[in-house]
Amino acid sequence: MPNKEAEGIRVLIVDDQKTMRKIVRQLLSQIGIENVIEAKNGEEALDILNNPRVPDPDVVICDLHMDTMDGTELLNHMRREEGLKERMIPVLILTGDGDDLIHDVTLQVGATKVLTKPISAPDLQREIEEAVGFTLDS
């Protein structure tokens, strides 16, 4: 796998809980990723993803259960809408929901991987590296 500087990675965190966005941001910081954008639901995330002035994230880390638009709905838009589906941005679903059926459905809708909370910084780094296809140098 090729290497890329962690500080060059762009991540979009989508979670309706401010505390959880802060925790994920701290985990990313531990692995050297500082270029982070946050959205509080799928609708906000779509606005960011469809904004031509905002560079595409290398990976999206998204909660599953959120108000307004949840992770599954966001994935549906990302994998089916013209202009978004071509970009195939990796989406890591980070959820507290341990239901295997829900995980399977989420993968079928287009998640790159479903991760269960809590997660450590090294585990998150490994999953990001797998999703983006290169090793992070911090």
Give the SSE layout:
Layout: E1 3-5, E2 10-14, H1 18-30, E3 35-39, H2 42-49, E4 59-62, H3 71-80, E5 91-95, H4 100-109, E6 113-116, H5 121-132, E7 135-137
Parallel strand pairs: 1-7, 2-3, 2-4, 4-5, 5-6
Helix pairs in contact: 2-3
Task: Describe the model.
The protein is of the alpha/beta class. It has one domain (3-131): 3-Layer(aba) Sandwich (Rossmann fold). The chain is 38% helix and 21% strand. The protein has 5 helices and 7 strands, in the order E-E-H-E-H-E-H-E-H-E-H-E. The chain has helices spanning 18-30, 42-49, 71-80, 100-109, 121-132; strands at 3-5, 10-14, 35-39, 59-62, 91-95, 113-116, 135-137. Strands 3-2-4-5-6 form a 5-stranded parallel beta sheet, sandwiched between helices. Helix 2 runs parallel beside helix 3 (71-80). The protein is globular and about 35 Å long. The model has no long low-confidence stretch (mean pLDDT 94).
Structural class: alpha/beta
> pLDDT below 50 for ≥5 consecutive residues: which ranges?
none
Number of strand segments: 7
H/E topology pattern? EEHEHEHEHEHE
| Measured distance between first and last alpha carbons | 15 Å
Query: Treating each run of at least 4 consecutive H or I residues as one helix, how many helices?
Result: 5
State the strand order across the main sheet.
3-2-4-5-6
